[in-house]
């Protein structure tokens, strides 16, 4: 029997992110991963949206960029048979890095272990129980079975989560009867392109760039670049498939033949993956001392969303778990993990289910819907709104009467001028600690904040066109409270004290007496 603060089941992006964030908060996690070696199976091939900003705020984006072998594409993303084209915007609402999931996991593993997280590979969760004080995990390891206890256990073990199964957490939703086979391959010289990017395939003819809805299914074709092309087939198949089973070239060729009605000459495979879409979300992200995150909590029926949302689950959860473990959490803090991330899952399901509706229709009415949707995206405001939605840039609904418009939003990366020099909000967030940021020299507000000086960092700075007089930023870089420009000191101080107590507990007596 061994003991730790938090057990994490699963060493994918969500689990590794959680381990890193917990270590930053001073909590001891143990990660249990059933696979004996890191996975090299080609699954996701990129991350985008708000998670890139969060990685930058933690100082990890450069490592992610260094592990990205392909050039960063322009900000243009598929959306259910149409495209979100942000290339004409001065500041696109979302971007993406084409990093393979295995490479991303290597970056996250190195960071987690550098901070002191323990990752046990080849250790499978086989049993689970909890009482009022502890959760006990029964584990099958390389040297036999053992038990480990912790204050909390978090299942980050994927769509077929053993944690979720053992805890009996319902996972309602829909399995879509379609299988997608995605490939990036070289093409022989016999395959050429037309000026608009369509392929000219011997024996087949013209294969248009983009989504081709055919009798046998859908063939989605990307541009040919330096002899390399990415494409995807989508076919109706009623049985559930195993995403962990590698896709072979023979299986891919058979699928192309069924969809296109002909063979497509293929060269060397650079990436092969198969996946099936489901739309699911757990009814509760928490059952006592057992929680779920990432694919264990939700599955989305479109690509490009799962890793972004799953890693954000972990960043939202970690500091709240740390508060519980360290004994300063206010009542109900851990429950806000479910409130906020279930809401995030609902928003992600909204946009991915909309993609299902856009892509699955094959009649003239569906073509008209796609055309109309694409026309609406010619205007900047709806295009930016879609960018925030798809990029999971959320504005959490926070409690309280008449909150500032910034409350619940992601903290902007302001340039800050201080007595020590110039810095940024992103740099202040590297330590994953709460930050009280005085932007208007409000000593009465700093005096209130100092009562929590053992838990929050207090900074005074000036910035151009300040969005508020002061910001209280949570460790997940979302704004918990903001003071309006020239807001009355008495009302601002009362509201700040309430926000500090609500998110970071009552102040320590020693800290209060020292003020």
Q: How is this structure best summarized?
A:
The protein is α+β, with helices and mostly antiparallel strands.
Description:
The structure is a single chain. By secondary structure, the chain is α+β, with helices and mostly antiparallel strands. The chain has 14 helices and 27 strands. The strands form seven sheets. Strands 1, 2, 7, 8, 9, 10, 19 and 20 form an eight-stranded mixed β-sheet that branches. Strands 15-16-17-11-18-21 form a six-stranded antiparallel β-sheet, sandwiched between helices. The longest helix is centred in the C-terminal third of the chain and has 26 residues, at 335-360. The protein is globular and about 80 Å long. The model has no long low-confidence stretch (mean pLDDT 92).
What's the pLDDT, averaged over the residues?
Answer: 92
Low-confidence stretches: none
Q: Summarize the amount of helix as a percent range.
A: 25-40%
Q: CA-to-CA gap between the ends?
A: 44 Å
The biggest sheet, with number of strands, parallel, antiparallel or mixed sense and barrel status, is: 8 strands, mixed
Structural class: alpha+beta
Fraction of residues in β-strands: 25-35%
Name the shape in a single word: globular
Number of strands: 27
> What is the overall number of helices?
14
Give the radius of gyration.
Answer: 24 Å
Properties at a glance:
28% strand, single chain, 14 helices, alpha+beta, six-stranded antiparallel β-sheet, globular, eight-stranded mixed β-sheet, 515 residues
């Amino acid at each position: 029997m061994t003991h730790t603060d938090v057990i994490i089941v699963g060493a994918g992006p969500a689990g590794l992110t959680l381990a890193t964030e917990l270590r930053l908060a001073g909590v001891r996690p143990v990660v249990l991963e059933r696979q004996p070696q890191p996975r090299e199976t080609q699954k996701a091939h990129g991350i985008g949206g708000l998670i890139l900003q969060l990685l930058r705020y933690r100082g990890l984006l450069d490592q992610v960029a260094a592990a990205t072998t392909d050039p960063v594409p322009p900000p243009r993303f598929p959306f259910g048979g149409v495209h979100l084209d942000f290339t004409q915007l001065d500041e696109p609402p979302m971007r993406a890095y084409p990093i393979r999931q295995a490479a991303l996991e290597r970056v996250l593993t190195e960071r987690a272990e550098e901070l002191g997280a323990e990752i046990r590979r080849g250790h499978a969760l086989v049993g689970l129980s909890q009482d009022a004080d502890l959760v006990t995990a029964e584990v099958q390891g390389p040297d036999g079975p053992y038990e480990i206890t912790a204050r909390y256990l978090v299942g980050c073990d994927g769509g077929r989560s053993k944690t979720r199964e053992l805890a009996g957490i319902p996972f309602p939703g829909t399995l879509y009867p379609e299988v997608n086979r995605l490939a990036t391959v070289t093409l022989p010289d016999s395959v050429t392109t037309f000026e608009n990017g369509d392929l000219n395939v011997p024996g087949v003819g013209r294969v248009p760039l983009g989504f081709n809805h055919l009798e046998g299914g859908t063939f989605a074709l990307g541009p040919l670049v330096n002899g390399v092309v990415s494409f995807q087939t989508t076919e109706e198949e009623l049985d559930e498939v195993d995403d962990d089973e590698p896709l072979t070239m023979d299986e891919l060729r058979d699928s192309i033949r069924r969809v296109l009605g002909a063979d497509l000459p293929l060269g060397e495979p650079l990436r092969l993956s198969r996946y099936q879409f489901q739309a699911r979300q757990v009814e509760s992200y928490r059952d006592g001392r057992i929680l779920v995150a990432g694919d264990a909590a939700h599955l989305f029926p479109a690509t490009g969303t799962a890793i972004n949302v799953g890693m954000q689950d972990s960043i939202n959860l970690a500091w709240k778990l740390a508060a519980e473990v360290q004994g300063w959490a206010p009542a109900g803090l851990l429950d806000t993990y479910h409130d906020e991330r279930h809401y995030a899952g609902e928003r992600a399901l909204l946009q991915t289910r909309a993609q299902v509706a856009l892509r699955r229709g094959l009649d003239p009415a569906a073509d008209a819907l796609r055309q109309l949707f694409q026309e609406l995206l010619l205007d900047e405001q709806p295009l930016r709104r879609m960018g925030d939605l798809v990029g999971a840039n959320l504005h959490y609904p926070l409690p309280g009467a008449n909150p500032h418009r910034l409350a619940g939003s992601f903290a902007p990366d302001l340039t800050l001028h201080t007595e020590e020099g110039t810095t940024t909000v992103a740099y202040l967030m590297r330590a994953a600690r709460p930050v009280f940021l005085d932007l208007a020299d409000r000593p009465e507000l700093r005096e209130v904040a100092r009562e929590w000086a053992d838990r929050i960092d207090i900074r005074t700075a000036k910035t151009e066109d300040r969005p508020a007089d002061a910001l209280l930023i949570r460790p997940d870089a979302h704004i918990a409270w903001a003071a309006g420009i020239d807001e009355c000191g008495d009302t601002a101080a009362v509201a700040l004290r309430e926000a500090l107590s609500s998110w970071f507990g009552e102040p320590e007596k020693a800290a209060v007496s020292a003020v």
